[in-house]
Design brief:
Blueprint: E1 3-8, H1 15-28, E2 33-37, H2 43-53, H3 62-86, E3 90-94, H4 97-107, H5 112-122, E4 130-135, H6 138-152, H7 165-181, E5 186-190, H8 195-214
Helix pairs in contact: 1-8, 2-3, 3-5, 4-5, 4-7
Length: 216
């Protein structure tokens, strides 16, 4: 049994908390799982992450940004995602291809066909079995993210949080557009319902996937 589960959403949507809860739940059931993230997830990609999220890199052009994300993903897929799935484990990934479509395609207004093509190449055709889109208004999520960064002293990764609100609104619009096109894969969950209710919805969907996998 192997499952590739991704979590998406605007800044401050609560992805990290839900990923940790799901990992704990799966381990209690004796299911091997691994948490990873994008950009990052392996030594080389983590170095690229530092470049991408550094708020001092304001001069970075959208094309450079896009290609760096794709380069980080190519390494991440090869070093982490594919090997763990091959072992029959569950991979829980904080952002994947959908984030690039939402942030670079919709947020930066880059050509969507180009973004999707590069995504396909860098991910080697791997697609999530399910994607949880943790949705909340962009202004609410951004406020949460900035508070979190101050509390955890993560200001060194605030390049996207420093974007103006219209950018984040375009990102959210992009995510919802993806969900509308792929409703069977992308499950939209309103995070304003509270962490416990959000996790209960995630748990039920994952349980159904696990049952389906065990029957194959």
């Amino acid at each position: 049994m192997s499952l590739f589960i991704t979590f998406e959403g605007v800044e401050g949507s609560g992805k990290t908390s839900q990923i940790q809860r799901l990992k704990k739940y799966l381990l209690q059931k004796g299911i091997p799982c691994k948490i990873t993230r994008e950009p990052g997830g392996c030594p080389i990609s983590e170095k690229v992450r530092k470049i991408l999220l550094n708020p001092g890199h304001r001069e970075m052009v959208p094309m450079s940004e896009l290609l760096l994300y794709e380069a980080a993903r190519a390494q991440h897929v090869k070093d982490v995602i594919k090997p763990f799935l091959k072992k029959g484990g569950v991979v829980l990934c904080d952002r994947f291809n959908d984030a690039t479509i939402a942030y670079q395609g919709y947020g930066r207004k880059m050509d969507l066909a180009l973004v999707k093509r590069l995504n396909h190449i860098s991910s080697q055709g791997i697609k999530p079995d399910v994607t949880f889109l943790l949705d909340c208004p962009s202004d609410v999520g951004l406020k949460r993210a900035l508070q979190r960064n101050r509390m955890l002293k993560q200001e060194k990764e605030e390049r996207f949080e420093k974007e103006k609100l219209p950018f984040h609104q375009r990102v959210r619009k992009g995510y919802l557009a993806i969900a509308k096109k792929e409703p069977s894969r992308v499950r939209v969950i309103d995070t304003r319902e509270g962490e416990d209710k959000v996790f209960e919805k995630i748990r039920k969907i994952v349980d159904n996937l696990l049952v389906g996998s065990s029957e194959l």
